[in-house]
Design brief:
Length: about 400
């Protein structure tokens, strides 16, 4: 498939050589002879991929990468650092700065470089954390790092299809990022359940109002209410002045139960979670990657009358060997006894689940409003201590953080 490639190299002969080999393969190429020109040009008119030399005067390729990554509108840009230096330290610096790949500059076999770049472009998916808070949004200096917006996560696939998990207030900054791309959008909104912190900002998702965009909204029906009614009821002209009939995009609905579905370019599996009403957990399988979004969910302690070994076993299998598990860690173990049957989990129970399931990365999620950034730091430390000796790494999503995942 034809791609738009931007190249930056201060050596005119290398720039010309690379331009020719990408053009021979049918790609559209823009060349920049300096990093400052590339920064300006790529920001104004983003390509699919930027290949940057590492050693350049004024601003090296790593610094250029870092600066481009500070711009949320370029979250999906594939950046590849091409270097005649192949030291591990340089590779690490480039990848830490946000590059998708670091490949050696080869004059003898430049076609191999094209292949490596294409593999990176076509196999990278990016995950964006737009809202990580549960229950209600919380603004103020105490929530700046982990964020105060309610649940919303995006997953963008190589073909541009975007998954939007839940429509809390975090969907508003995501809308800004998607609209900033200035192109037609094709996506799926995957709702876990219709509690306010998961659906009430769907009316502010501006891509739904743009003709030419195409979205499917998927999720579970509730007693007597279809998924479409659940969405429409909060946009009935009384609770919100604009109704779904005013959406300009083509919007369809699909009611899901437990099962396995083809959605966009991925396989999506669902499981009903332990939470009031019908609440779906999702697992996405794509290109050998497994990503699970499991919220809201209560894991009862084993000494509780409500504990179900069958449920725990099913959930463990559902998230087994996931690359990422983003899940409800609302409470500390000390807080949980005062919140039993509220539908949310305590930290150690979740860590046990992740360890048992051999999850690679556990993301603490659905932070309760009263937890400050410092409180979440402490929970992360506790989770890391509980994970010691296992292969599971614990993280907590930072507001507006993007994670790039290479298909295996
Ligand atoms: Zn919630
Ligand atoms: Zn809920």
């Amino acid at each position: 498939m034809k791609k738009r490639i931007a190249l930056v190299d201060d050596d005119p002969s290398v720039l010309e050589l690379h331009k020719v080999i990408f053009e021979i393969e049918g790609h559209e190429v823009t060349g920049y002879s300096s990093s400052s020109a590339a920064l300006e040009g790529v920001t104004r008119d983003p390509p699919d991929c930027l290949l940057t030399d590492i050693m350049m005067p004024e601003m090296d390729g790593t610094e250029l990468t870092r600066r481009l990554r500070q711009n949320p509108a370029l979250a999906n840009l594939c950046i590849v650092v091409v270097s005649s230096k192949v030291y591990a330290a340089d590779r690490k610096r480039a990848l830490d700065a946000g590059a998708n790949g670091f490949i050696p500059k080869s004059r003898s076999n430049p076609q191999a470089m094209v292949g490596e770049v294409m593999a990176l472009i076509t196999e990278t998916i990016s995950l964006g954390f737009w809202g990580t808070r549960g229950t209600m949004p919380m603004s103020g200096p105490q929530t700046l790092r982990y964020g105060g917006n309610t649940a919303c996560i995006s997953l963008t696939f190589p073909d541009g299809h975007v998954f939007v998990f839940d429509a809390g207030t975090g969907i508003y900054p995501l809308a800004g990022q998607l609209m900033g791309q200035g192109k037609k959008l094709n996506g799926t909104v995957l709702l876990s359940h219709p509690h306010w912190d998961h659906i009430n900002f769907l009316p502010f998702f501006t891509p739904l109002f743009v003709p030419g965009n195409q979205f499917e909204i998927v999720g579970a029906d509730q007693d007597g209410l279809s998924l479409e009614q659940l969405v429409a009821n909060q946009m009935d002209g009384v609770h919100f002045p604009i109704t779904p009939s005013e959406w300009g995009a083509r919007v369809g609905y699909r009611s899901l139960g437990e099962g396995c579905y083809d959605i966009g370019p991925a396989k999506v599996s669902t499981m009903l979670l332990c939470h009031p009403g019908n609440c779906l957990g999702y697992r996405v399988d794509f290109g050998g990657l497994k990503i699970a979004y499991v919220t809201d969910n209560e894991l009862y302690p084993e000494d509780s009358d409500m504990f179900s070994p069958v449920y725990l076993q099913r959930l463990t299998e559902f998230v087994s060997h996931c690359d990422l598990l983003i899940t409800d860690t609302s409470y500390t173990d000390e807080e949980y006894p005062k919140r039993i049957n509220w539908g949310h989990s305590a930290l150690s129970r979740v860590v046990n689940l992740a360890r048992q399931a051999q999850v690679k990365e556990l993301y603490l999620f659905h932070h309760v409003p009263e937890h400050t950034d410092d409180d979440i730091d402490k929970m992360l430390q506790q989770a890391a201590a509980l994970c010691a000796g296992s292969s599971t790494v614990c993280k907590a999503a930072q507001a507006l953080e993007t994670v790039r995942l290479n298909a295996v």
